[in-house]
């Protein structure tokens, strides 16, 4: 049975989304035009408006396509945090979130002003921070330790985001070692450290 992606419409939409990923992740938002995206995707520029409404609509969908599954995984772990849940979440994050996307989000939040930054704040940062806060509260409640959940949340986010920010430098210093196996081992170690510190199963 054909899926939506197998249809001509699905293939065109996917081509545009792939082009957006290639271009937005390597350039600033302002430097990428609809024409450039269309040329990269080998489609008429009107197709971008048809499928995504605008360049900003395409940008938002590109962000969602990478992060939606990670946000769902995080929400599903609220109330049932254990070592394996943390390990699998970290492993999935390291494997599915491109380094360039991490840089793009951080760069936009720090240096941009306007509609896109506001959208990222409301639709990505706040929900992600709220979910991380609930997970941190679960861990603190389970352990009974007098830890500020905000401090723990920030520590957990550091374990996730810092390796992705540092990945280009790590790959330059250790070109033969920074691969999926490295990040799987990192996820295992980080989850173990959290589990041992807070007596998680």
From TrEMBL:
User: Which PANTHER family does the record match to this protein?
Assistant: HTH-TYPE TRANSCRIPTIONAL REGULATOR BETI, HTH-TYPE TRANSCRIPTIONAL REGULATOR RUTR
Q: Which InterPro entries match?
A: Homeodomain-like_sf, HTH-type_TetR-like_transc_reg, HTH_TetR
HTH tetR-type domain location: 10-70
Query: Which keywords label this protein?
Result: DNA-binding, Transcription, Transcription regulation
List the stretches of this chain annotated as a DNA-binding region. Answer: 33-52
Q: What is this protein called?
A: Putative transcriptional regulator
Organism in which the protein naturally occurs:
Reinekea blandensis MED297
Any single GO molecular-function term of the entry would be: transcription cis-regulatory region binding
